[in-house]
Write a structure and sequence with these properties.
- The chain has about 250 residues and is of the alpha/beta class.
- About 35% of the residues lie in helices and about 30% in strands.
- Strands 1-4-5-6-7-10-11-12 form an 8-stranded parallel β-barrel, surrounded by 6 helices.
- Helix 1 packs parallel to helix 2.
Length: about 250
């Protein structure tokens, strides 16, 4: 049986780690390099680095900061934000990223997913979906959650898998930062319908939420930010708890 992964997320704005609620009201959460090093040492399975305003500000991800983080960690490293071309992907891989996450670019230019998979392998391609429910329908959003699209979340996830994405990072904007639990129903619906791993994001507040997203939500990995940044839950303690609850995690 494949082990479930615990993934801290560094949301980056102006070179600092930030965290908000429902994608707004951002507050400083610390130095990304120091946090990355700490999480690697604590036993995080992977690390995600998202430059959350790169697309909105029409600029590229902070390559120098990516290099600094990569030097300090010994775990797989996913980087996203402002990526629009194979050249951007190559630059970030050269800077130390193991996987590349795209969101707005995937919506604007779906063929980029196919091109990335062909050039670098599907295992390198993570497509992020920022989803919000409106009138009972889950809609894909872009530009750091600021723009709604005409894409529904579940069919879009299936198209991403068909195009060669190796993994989906699914964030519920409705749950983000609320600490009320992950969107287990949506996560389960997508995990059950596609053949690639789904990383659940948005809503982690206590250890039980991780257990539930793995059991009820059928997620392959769970991503969180503020509970780790503000030391509300430690990664070693979380893994011990999950093991006691019968969830297979990496030691």
């Amino acid at each position: 049986m494949l082990t479930k992964r615990i993934i801290p997320c560094l949301d980056i704005k102006d070179g600092r780690t930030v965290k908000g609620v429902n994608f707004v009201e951002l507050r400083d959460a610390g130095d990304p390099v120091a946090l990355a090093k700490l999480y690697s040492e604590q036993g995080a399975d992977e690390l995600v680095f998202l430059d959350i305003t790169a697309t909105v500000d029409k600029r590229k991800t902070l390559v120098k900061l990516v290099m600094e983080v990569a030097k300090e960690i010994a775990i797989p490293f996913t980087v996203g934000g402002g990526i629009t071309s194979l050249e951007d992907v190559q630059a970030l891989l050269a800077a130390g990223a193991d996987k590349i996450s795209i969101n707005s670019a995937a919506v604007n230019q779906p063929s980029l997913i196919n091109e990335m998979a062909k050039a670098f392998g599907s295992q390198c391609v993570v497509v992020a979906i920022d989803s919000r429910r409106l009138a009972g329908i889950d809609w894909v959003h872009t530009h750091g959650g600021r723009k709604i699209t005409t894409l529904q979340t579940k069919p879009w996830a299936k198209e991403l898998a068909d195009r060669g994405a190796g993994e989906i990072l699914l964030t519920s904007m409705d749950h983000d930062g609320t600490k009320s639990g992950f969107a287990n129903d949506l996560t389960a619906a997508i995990s059950s319908s596609i053949p690639i791993p789904v990383i659940a994001s948005g809503g982690a507040g206590k250890m039980e939420h991780f257990r539930d997203v793995f059991s009820q939500g059928k997620a392959d990995a769970a991503l969180a930010a503020s509970i780790f940044h503000f030391k509300e839950i430690g990664i070693p303690e979380l893994k011990s708890y999950l093991e006691e609850e019968g969830v297979f995690v990496r030691k």
